[in-house]
Amino acid sequence: MSGGSSIVVPMVLWGKYAPTHCISAILSTPDMKNIITGCNDGQICIWDLTDNGQLYPRSMLFGHTTSISCLALGSNQTTQPYIVSASENGEMCLWDISDGRCIEHTKMSQVHTDMVSYHFSNTKDYRLVCNGYYPEVLIINPLSFEVMICLSSKVVPDWISACCVLRPATKDDDVVLAISNSGTVKVWTLPSSEIKAKIVFEDESKQIRCLNAQTLTCCSANQRTVLIVCSKYWQIYDASDFTLLCSESNRVGERWCGGDFISVDRVIVWSNEGKGYLYKLPTNADPRSSEYRHHQPTSPHAYYILDIYSEQQLVCTPAMVFSKSMNGRKGLLRGDSDGRVVIWMLPEVSEKQMTLVRQESFDRLPALPPKTSTTLQDIWDSLYKYPPGVLEGLCAEDEHHLRITSTIYIPSQGKMVCGRQNGSIIILPATQSIIFQLLENNQISKDSISQQMLDGHDGRVTCLLYPFNESTRYEPQHLLSGGADFSVILWDIFSGYKIHTFTVHGGELTQMIVPPANCNVRILSSICSVASDHSVALLSLKERKCILLAGRHLFPVHTIRWRPLDDFMVVSCNDGTIYVWQMETGHLDRVVQGITAEEILNNCDENAAPMENLTNPSLTLTQALKRRNFATFRNLAQQKLQSHQNQQQLSQGPKADYVKPTGFPMLIQGVRTNTRDPDAHVVFFDTESLIVQLLTEEFALLSPGELEARGLLTPVIERPSGTQPELSEAQQKIAGLIAKAKEKADTIGQKIQDKVQTSGLTVGGRDTSTASRGSIISTASTTDATRPDSIRLQTNITMEIAQIFMSCLHAWGLDPDLDKLCLNKLGLLKPQSPISFGLLSRQGHMSLMLPGWHKRVCHSELADLKGVTVSKIRQGDVKSVSFAEPPQPPGGSVSGKPTLLAQRMGSMPFDDEELYSSDDGANNDDAFDDSLPVPEKHINATALQQETGIFSTKARWQISSAVTTQHLLSVISVANTMMSMSCASFLMKSRRKKKKQGVVTGHAGIIVTDVPDGDNTDDMLTMQQAQIKQGWSLLAALHCVLLPELVGASHYKPPLLEMLARRWQDRCLEIREAGQALLLAELRRIGLEGRKAIVDEWSPFLPMYVDPNLSLLSDAQKGEEEDDDEDDESMMAGDLPAHKVSVSFESRRKQATAIVMLGVVGAEFGHEIEPSRRKHEEPKKGGRKAPEGFSLTNYSLARHTSKALTFLLLTPPSSRLPAHTPIRRAAIDLIGRGFTVWEPYLDVSSVLLGLLELCIDSDQIVPSVTYGLPLSPVADACRTARHALSLIATARPAAFIITMAKEVARYNAQAQNAQSQHTHLQNLVLVRARQEIQHILELMVEKMPNDIADIFVETVDVVVHCLDMGQLKSKGLQELFPAICRFSMVSACNQTKRIWVGAKNGNLALYEMKQHSKCQLISAHQGPVIAVCVNPDGKYLCTFSHVDSRLKFWQTASSSIFGIGSQQTKCIRQYSVPKIEVTPLTNILKLVRLVWIDNKTVVLLTVDGSETKFSI
Question: For the chain, what is the mean pLDDT?
Fold first, then answer.
């Protein structure tokens, strides 16, 4: 999947077999609401436990690579349901169990066998006390995995086998008790004050008779007795001096595994058979008794046994733990090797009952059955319908039992290839089979999905590889499969022909990989295969033979790395040894172990380019000779060539500024927890790639004519941001883009086409339109004439992907009208059963929801589905289970009360007939008559339908905030994309040829209209398009605004504000806009109090308030790459390596989020505490009582936020804060949005110049028509800065103009004084950004002419600066800047090369058209000069002011002969004019106009239509 910041939504097809889950560790949360189990394969399963003992699996977490050794709680705060897991290779992860996000992870050199969470007296939250295969006890901070304290031993250091922490009643200090493998008890005391030392040594130690203890527990009630369990016996000791008080041996055939105190005088101990035994301690081991420690150790009395009496033998020792919940319930938890979770709730047993037991014989202990016992497979079997699998219902009846053993997805053809256990390989179209499995549809049936079978292997298919996925240097028809029969087969997938079988390995194939792209040519056409006999081979697909067989490895192969420049393949085995093979000669160069081996592995760089200059070529050549290394010789020769080419490329200047999307819209991956399991399939949808792909296809398929029509009739995508594109150059841009797309499409399309034809296969019913890494390839070119007949373009893969995606994510059932609209107009499909979503978090950690989790919510919503008849449901909760009501007939009213959406929109979106006439009448399935007896199967179907409904209306919105955020962002952004496309319904597949005949066919071939008259058809289409657009906009509105209200607060986990804040400037426009809309909607929803809380929560993270060493704004460490969303955290450049936990990284990410969050709140809600529209604009919130920092008197937060924003805008790029990062874009955007709030605290001129600098050459950088595709960071920053400037200019026109005018005056003064530094002046932002300033001025003249008129002279100062003097003289002002000439108070004379301007203060300003000339001011009138006009020959000037009602004639200063002499402008005549009435509402700009009718006569035109002539 493309990494970085994209939103990836996984969905899982689990199939009918539950994953293996051999439990190795088990844990319960303190409230006993969740059970967490870790298994030997490295997965973690989270279970929900209800109060009545029902267990529902919630999700499965993937991320560890080896067996889980222990689990512990990660936080005791209710807002953070965190757990920590540690595995046998030292990996540790911190998970959020609500949604399975991995919050932090690390790999330590120590391997832990046990972790205890403990809240020390001097810490805010839990610390982990860990012990394991190392001689210390480590105290670790679970939130950052930093080792806080290391408890070491001076006396007999040894591995610690068990430890616990206690806090003696008398002191505040915490005491750590531990026992080593050799039986030494050690005690460390940790004082309650802050500990400075990292290493603490033990206070006391004592040797006792107790080897290899399993657990050590201290009685929490009085902390005077300690229970130590060893495999042969368990013992009670006095905690003060470790005197033995009581001991009990193991049962025959069982070993003790652990134990705990139930109360002061009762313990529970469990054995490796999975049984629990309850014991009453003798009086000498009970500290409350008077006989405590009085006599010799005695035996305890067993009084209860916990057992499940199952027939099955346990494969390995179950994981067991005793749990006390906060409300006093006590339970024993057990996790078995077959994935069974068993829970016993311990009863209260009175003394009286115990004496009865004691009198009975020991063999007949009373047994307690478990409260709960469940496996994943039990849950699977209890569902109304098995979770969908990829091939369910698609293969022949006798093949249903065949398990899928390997899977690969071919994005370029939209096909999925599955290898099965009988050696057959099945190839089928991925999107269609997913629609068939997940959604209710009538178009796709088992027979309509074209399948292809390849038979060749004997035994199961163990791995598949489609090399063209990895690199286009391979043939698109080649597919490789490896099997348990030791062979690798090369297939032609277009013809199904077996090309070659490689039989070089001596074991079943485990994996196949592609060598990197810079190997030598012979290796490039080969692939690398690994088998279970530890052999590695390079198989050449071109020569059809094995080039290299590396087979001397003694241990299984762990990883393969490459050193292409040295021609080395480096094979690492899992004992840590590495073998270095030479690829071309097959020579084993060396075998290395230990640290050297690790260093070699870490220094293998697949992408290394040849070194620019070898320091000493002769030296390198000799080494090459010694090693017989041919690659080096070649590289030496190539270097000169490459460096030459690089220089050429650099000189060509910047290329197109689109960012190539990296991922595919959909990927399918087989996952399994254990090698014996069949594959479950995770389908990953990449929202950004999907949007980019949809938009690219939309525009690539248009003919130039359509494009032109669109470009000229409607701007391609109307965006609020920025200004409307000038379409003249747009055409060239589009033409260029399309030409490129077509050229690429034709070449690859042709290549595939040729292959298809050579194999004699026509691809019927499939579109081979392929997407190779983001560029659209359509096999047929865009005109009908040239389209070959052999390929019929019928389905569009990207549209099908979008259809699946939106159908699964839409909130069905919340608004019945919208649902009908979605089904009948937009072509969405309802899910058949609840969908298992997933969540990707940092660095590939993944959580997948398990089926059956929703049952918990369903049970609470509906009493008990199995026995419920429909009538009961109707009474129960009609609103949420609206599908249980039969739909009304089309004529009748839809429901008593109009839906929320209809109320908001004021009416039903469309006319009823339209809505209810579905293409296939499929809507009536839901209606049935409850009086008739309903067969079992039908009840199941109904119940499943109800469950699916509750899932989509309630359950899925309460999974977690992170999941809600991802789903809403995806739905809204894709809906907006569909809205911007033409004809974006999944139903309308109208083909052009049919359209010409006047017939428009629907998706299923149903004729929608049959109108011979062309005009009408067009009208129908236009109407339909408008309806579809409106449908998408209603869908976006539902998810953005109405959802919380419709779902209900108790069921709705709101989106995470910080995730949305990080998307504020996502590189994909649609996601950016969805993120902004959602964040603002959520801030509005939480109201004033909620916003106050947000400000209080985030303001401490503003860079001004944090430790200066960690501050974003400190010079030492600038930076934060704000792309890192929760989902994929890339540590930013220049930061600590990922395996070291960086406190400063997390801190800087928080600061970046705080800046955006407070910036948004300030910019959008700053007015909440503004008394009036005076200049006191003050940020964020407050209403009646503003929070500290946000009131008019205390404005520290406003100041700090604005400081942080300007810092991000203006600070020069550094490794920590690169130039065009999203956080900088966010700062630019927020400065623009909230300018009125920040203005008092900003240095306005530096902010404006900083923004202008980003806009230099914007017309070259930003394509004028972007189709909404992601731009390069430079272009994106430029677009954002342009938008910000236009916002500032329209919000505070005076501030903008006056600041710019001051800068211009400063510049002119410099220019007149310093002729020598001419080049330096040319590089000033003010000069280079002239075009952009002019652009903004035009916008302001258009939007707010009255504001401009008030500061007209300053405006003209700036205008004159922006225009090129040479052109101004030759072409005149009217042609260069027509907008300003609309004003009556400016007049330019082409004869005398001057510009005259009337000012508001009554002055007359004169500009000479010369470089850097100063403006001259002449006092002219008592009030504003509202009209100025110079006569045709330039000798006379006429001015008028309505305040003193005077019209004056001026003689313009004509110079004497040869231009020598005085240049005086003097008034030669003045007239009084009748007073013109002016009310406050009068538009002064339109009041009068002056027109010269000849050289001596002028006419004064007034707004009421009167004309008056005056002559000189």
Answer: 76
